[in-house]
Task: structure prediction
Amino acid sequence: AGTASLVVERPRPGSSLRCCARTTSFPQPVVMSEPKAPAPPPGDTYKGWLFKWTNYIKGYQRRWFVLSNGLLSYYRTQAEMGHTCRGTINLATANIVVEDSCNFVISNGGAQTYHLKASSEVERQRWITALELAKAKAVRMQAESGESGQGSGTRNSEVQSTLRTLGSKVEDLSTCNDLIAKHGSALQRSLSELEGVRLGGDTGDKIRQVTERATLFRITSNAMINACRDFLALAQAHSKRWQKALQAEREQRVRLEETLEQLAKQHNHLERAFRGATVLPPPLANPAGDSKVSGKGDVSDEDDENEFFDAMEDVPEFITVPADPKYHRRSGSNVSGISSEIGMDDQSVELVRKRRTRIPDKPNYSLNLWSIMKNCIGKELSKIPMPVNFNEPLSMLQRLSEDLEYHELLDKAAKCQNPLEQLCYVAAFSVSSYSTTVHRTGKPFNPLLGETFELDRLHEFGYRSLCEQVSHHPPAAAHHVISKRGWTLRQEITLASKFRGKYLSIMPLGTIHCIFEKSNNHYTWKKVTTTVHNIIVGKLWIDQSGEIDVVNHRTGDRCHLKFAPYSYFSRDVARKVTGVVTDKDGKAHFVLSGTWDEKMEVSRVMQSSRGGGENGTEGKQKTVYQTLRARELWKKNPLPEGAETMYYFSLLALTLNEQEEGVAPTDSRRRPDQRLMEQGHWEEANAEKQRLEEKQRSMRREREREAARAASAAEDGVPQDNYKAQWFERTEDPTTGEVTHIYMGGYWEAKEQASWDMCPDIF
Result:
């Protein structure tokens, strides 16, 4: 086969421009089929099964992986994609390494590493190709996102400006072409006239050479001008297409934003409608099922952190049915089985001070949470620098003091003669502390090391509370409450938190102690996991899930409480809490039920029996409790009017940051960034927050230098952190054996004497 082509030969010095037509013959090509790597399907999303290394016991486990928008996420099953993501890694900062024919590793520098194995070499190459393409796109989008603030209008104006410049340059070239043509014609006429003059042979050759070169120059100039015109026309044509594409992208983005907003509204409406229409099922409506608890002991095969399962998989551990009427007749009017004496509210409250009931309304400052947290996936929440826009004007110490919102439950418990009845009130108190969190999506301020908060309600409610931040990394707060009504509460809470991409997990670590003076009953329990959902899109909402064992260490009695995780598919009431109070022999005496955001009820167990197995199977029986009619143990107080504009604070929360005289100089009320935020000055609060954090870092560096100097002088040479809390002493707890901080006294005496010389300057 031949191909005709026009060949323009570059003239040698002293020769003329020659154009000639050639016909070049090419042999027929031999087609070789080279092996190609299988390409992933087109599009931005790639899904499939891979084997992920979990641990040395379970080895590789099959997981469903989804690659979308530069993020690689995985799930245990495809069904989990709607609610539970097991992990996500951002490919923009990840390294992809192929180990062998089927194995490869994805790592983002140490925080996350996935050891993966495909079913075949072909499948592995599909994933590698998809991952490399997604990584390149993610890196490109990340680089472009820094310039996105200028907006598409700026980019459009830049294109127009460039086109105008190009047009101007082409016009200049066209003018030059006209001048070249004009002067070239004059030159050629002059040369033609010279040819007519009789001159020597050498002179004639020179003139012909100049004439040829002038002709070549004119041809080249014309070609250049024509090429520039073609370029301008092409650029203008593409510019129109670019503008149309840009406008289409802009319109699509607006439509997507509107759609997301509509979906969020519909989601909220459906959720309200669902909750409004949901009723408790009949006592025996559900067949007996598996009594396993998905939340407890079911540790992920990837790590030891909490996981959240859909409540549809979670069946109740027991069933309650009305007891025989003879028990009601025997119990008389006391249908609940709880002493009426302790059910009476204490009417001897003396209000000695009028406290505030409002704070300044929350300003309407918009800020995208995802834009800040997208680079913080997998990190500890306390180590993420956050602007005050996501905070509420309270510190974590004040938030911890809100556990005393329903202190009257412990007042009633102190009056109980029966330890099992007392345990019911303590269990209700442990649930009531979560009621203030249902709408509180704002993050409390991380306390500075040495920061304190006192809550003195001795004259109003009979108790005094003191909190102190005793450690910064990990963040830990010690809390001690003494009541003149016969009880003491103490705890040390360390927060472990992880940002998972779609939700935020907050795991409080530590034990809460409650001791009653009269009976010497000593109760302990822990807190459940708090989850903040819809971090990426939609309205933020909070859920509590997990289990609590409230144990009486003197008698061996215990109450096992279960916080059911929220599920769209569950027919049960949302935020449900159930519990059983048993003695040291395991015999059930009371059943508790309710929700952690509304109320808790208690019923006395008159008789219990094992239910039938599920579908006739053995080992999957539930206990059926015959109970007396339920009585209310606790009910949530209504929120103050206008709470939605005041961070959804309760009446107690509204008073926590109120200015008070005589408090320690380290008290949270004196924290300037928190005070500025409460007053609505968020920019100043952000600047002050950065100043305080830098001051704290410099103080820590100074302590480290002192520790290093002390270590160099010591025999072992090992640096030791020399920081000691002001009001709490680190010691071993005699009841649990845990090393914790216990109040050593002296704060209230120092307050009476206004002697704060030992307090550090942290603000």
Remarks:
- The first helix runs from residue 121 to 145.
- The first strand starts at residue 2 and ends at 9.
- The mean pLDDT is 78.
